[in-house]
Amino acid sequence: MKPKPPEKKLTLKLQVDERVDFRIIGISSHENDYRMVWSVNQELGMQFTRVENLVVHQPKLKTDLSFSKYRFDDEDRYIRYNLIANRCPDGILFPEIKNIDFVLQVAGEMNETGFQALVKKLKGISVVSAVFVLHPEKIKGIARALQE
User: Fold this and answer.
1) Mean pLDDT value across residues 66-90
2) Whole domain around residue 62: which residue ranges?
3) Which CATH number is 99's domain given?
4) Mean pLDDT of the 58-82 span
5) Which of 21, 33, 71, 83 is least crowded, fewest Cβ atoms below 10 Å from its Cβ?
6) pLDDT at position 17, please?
């Protein structure tokens, strides 16, 4: 009786879709989250409200990290804004941008002129030290972390 030849192994690769359908603005400020949100609401006429924290599991630390999150839905323009702290007492949400204190996610149909006007208004807020337009495709795991 002949030995049976070994069967070829079937290998499947899982590809995670990391499409990004939002824009990101990084904000540096020495103020805490609620003071930052209050200033944005006052200066830009928005109505951010606190929602459930963004909880991210950190396998290296074997723990979950919790980051404060605020949301404003502009129903007239069909735009959703999420303001998320990039820091918590135990760690940083996106280590690639550790000089950023807050991440403002803008999801919806906002043209370039409107987006640049928002960036300019944010720069004018007294508690804001610096504003950066970020490229989400260059920040590891941002699509997964900020998906709704």
Assistant:
1) 94
2) 22-146
3) 3.30.310
4) 89
5) 21
6) 47
Does 71 fall in a domain? Answer: yes
Domain count, the chain: 1
d(CA 128, CA 40): 9
In a domain, 48, yes or no: yes
- The pLDDT value recorded for residue 97 is 87
> Does residue 73 have a pLDDT over 60?
yes
103 is a domain residue: yes
Please list the residues that pair with 20 across neighbouring strands.
none
Mean pLDDT of the chain: 86
